[in-house]
Amino acid sequence: MNHLVAAPLLLPLLTGAWLVLGVDRPIARHRAFSLAGCLALTLITGLLLFQSITGPVQVYVLGNWSPPFGIVLVLDRLSAMMVFITALLGFLSLVYAVHGTDLEGKNFHALFQFQLLGINGAFLTGDIFNLFVFFEIMLLASYGLVLHGGSGPRIRAGMHYALLNLVGSSIFLVGVGILYSLLGTLNMADLAVRIIQAPESSAALIQAGGLILFAVFALKAALLPVCFWLPAAYSFTSAPVAALFAVMTKVGVYVILRVFTLIFGDHGAAGANLLAPWLQPAALITLAAGTAGLLAAQNLRRITAFLVIVSVGTLLAVAGTLEQDAIAAAIVYLPHTTFMTGGMFLVTDMIAQQRPDAGAKLIPDQPVQQQTLLGLLFMGTAIAIAGLPPLSGFFAKVMMLIHVQYYSGSAWIWFLILFAGFLGLIALGRAGSIIFWKTLPVQNINSAEGAGTRPSRLPVFGPIYVLPAAALLGISPLLVIFGQPMARFADTVAAQLVEPVLYIEAVLGLERAALFFAHTGGL
Amino acid sequence: MEILVAASVGVMVACGVYLILRARTFPVVVGLTLISFGVNIFLFATGRLHTNLPAIITSEQIRYADPLPQALVLTAIVIGFAMIAFVVVLALRASGELHTDHVDGQPDDGRQKDGP
Q1: Is residue B23 part of a domain?
Q2: How far apart are the C-alpha atoms of A504 and A189, rounded to whole Å?
Q3: Which of B39, B90, B104 sits opposite A170 (nearest CB)?
């Protein structure tokens, strides 16, 4: 057993707990511990990703209870990729946060670490009740972070976010309860085996349980009927938190892919292809609604929040075909969109700080102080998000469009993705031209001092301040340059998802996997 | 017994849903509590309903109550309790900051405050 698999949980847990104990210590100490923890986490998850690319599915059996009785952590390629994305995005967001966001209230760093713990846990766990527990850890930390240092609007948005997710948690428990009472297990791999053997009479209830779970996962992923919490929560919270949250909706996407390929996939007898009539339409409507929101938003923060919704819609519309090469294309798009929307939140915040009156609102104001720097960052990130060459958005979208063309609904996917890209370009172009070009004349505070003096409270950003946003943008050309290895990797990820027999074998051993294999009509 | 348990789950969740849809934070919190109670009982019943059975298997005792839902429900109660406590604090903070206990943070007749 490779103990490193448990490290993405233990490291943030211990760092966070240690930071809570020393809540009154100087902030420098908190920052040092938290940054060191995140850096170590990034390195460890990088190593895990490397191991999973070259090696088999790894299983970590907590407490050494042999599966399916204990709780297992499973590291396959998809979860390895997701924990690495989380760690890297978390580290860069934290580098941004130490410039003052963490001073708005107490315990920012501890909450941040617990947030990472919850997200990593959701990615790694192989037990569906344990998934609920990690969701709750993730949510409780995120309530703290959304509200961190907040007043008025932030509290109102946080309230809606908390209430909706509490209802979601209750519904999740109902779904888990139904599956357990019918199948008698909570281990996801074991559920996949037992669903095949389930009697015909329980098929309806199994399907109901599965769809109830889908409703909850859709809430986390922000699919349309349940996505209205997102724009407010993400646009009112502080920028580094919003940047980290760019990966939170991807938790929803991940669990949808995991649960509905492993348990309710092609082979799932009573629950086979349960999601086929639901996922793609919901995702396409989400995509359309997110695009409409993009155009309607009068604030750059809100635009970025709607970009998150658009990205979820795109991902799930393509992955919703549940075909291997389409999922692979979506997996190429996933890191790109996560890092770019995360980076956009940071760029937005920097722009807002340098506009004295308007902030992030799209009304004319004095020009930002570092026009060239912020303009280039904004343009680069916008180009990547909108999907123009030469950055990664273009290649990821082309790949998705090529791979979905033979599957059902491809006409709608083509139309909506291209249309959303076009309208996203308009929304971002409009925002950019208002912010950078449609400027008011610079006002002098001390008119006698001559032109160019600005109110002294506006910050000027040094290289360290800009680093996280620039680094996130810098990932985009890397994804293009290493496009072929990335595409090949994504293909193996999708292969593992579509053919879950390796996953089941790693968790339950050869005997149960053979049973699964025999029932699914393998060789 | 099944009818009694099923009815109590149903009534509690129905009351909870009604209360959640109210506009003030206090009924919403009570509604959330009711829903989480209903869900806990439901989760408890997933191990089937028994009376007077131990949750362990021994050589002379062949019939037993499924211990796993009991463990699950314990976890769910603890988590649900913590969440409710958090929402109560959040609701108090919101009514202090926004000067209203409306869930949308706006007075009943007033317009919503400006967004960012």
Answers
A1: yes
A2: 5
A3: B39
Does residue B93 form part of some domain?
Answer: yes
Query: Which residues form the domain of A359?
Result: 275-444+456-481
Q: Is A372 buried (19+), middle (13-18) or exposed (0-12) by CB count in 10 A?
A: exposed
- What interface predicted TM-score (ipTM) does this complex get? 0.89
pLDDT score, position A467 = 93
Number of domains chain A contains: 1
A-B Cβ pairs (cutoff 8 Å, strict): 103
Query: A451: pLDDT confidence band, cut at 50, 70 and 90?
Result: very low
How confident is the model over A238-252, as a mean pLDDT? 93
Residue A357 is predicted with a pLDDT of 82
Residue A383 in any domain: the answer is yes
Give a yes or no: residue A353 inside a domain: yes
**Cα–Cα distance between A323 and A317 in angstroms, integer?**
12
Domain count, chain B: 1
What residue numbers bound the domain in which B34 lies?
A: 2-51+61-98
- Report if residue A29 sits inside a domain: no
Interface of A with B (CB under 8 A): 129, 132-133, 136, 140, 143, 147, 151-153, 155-156, 158-160, 162-163, 166-167, 169-170, 173-174, 176-178, 180-181, 186, 232, 235-236, 298-299, 301-302, 359-361
The model's pLDDT over A131-180, given as tens digits with 9 standing for 90+, comes to: 999 999 999 999 999 888 777 778 888 888 999 999 999 999 999 999 99
In a domain, B114, yes or no: no
Mean pLDDT of B95-114: 69
Among B20, A477, A207, which residue's Cα sits nearest to residue A198? A207
Whether A170 and B103 lie within 8 Å, measured CB to CB: no
**If 0-12 CB within 10 Å is exposed, 13-18 middle and 19+ buried, where does residue A68 land?**
buried
A327 and A257 Cβ atoms separated by less than 8 Å: yes
Closest Cα in chain A, distance from residue B104 (Å): 6
8 Å CB contact between A161 and A139: no
Any domain includes A503: no
Q: Which range among A101-110, A186-195, B23-32 shows the weakest confidence by mean pLDDT? A: A101-110
Domain assignment present for residue B103? The answer is no
Instruction: Give the burial string for A451-474 (b: 16+ CB within 10 Å, else e).
Output: eeebeeeeeebeeebbbbbbbbbe
Beta carbons within 8 Å of A196's beta carbon, 6+ residues apart: A267, A268, A269, A516, A519, A520
Of residues B59, B41, B72, the one with CA closest to residue A180: B72
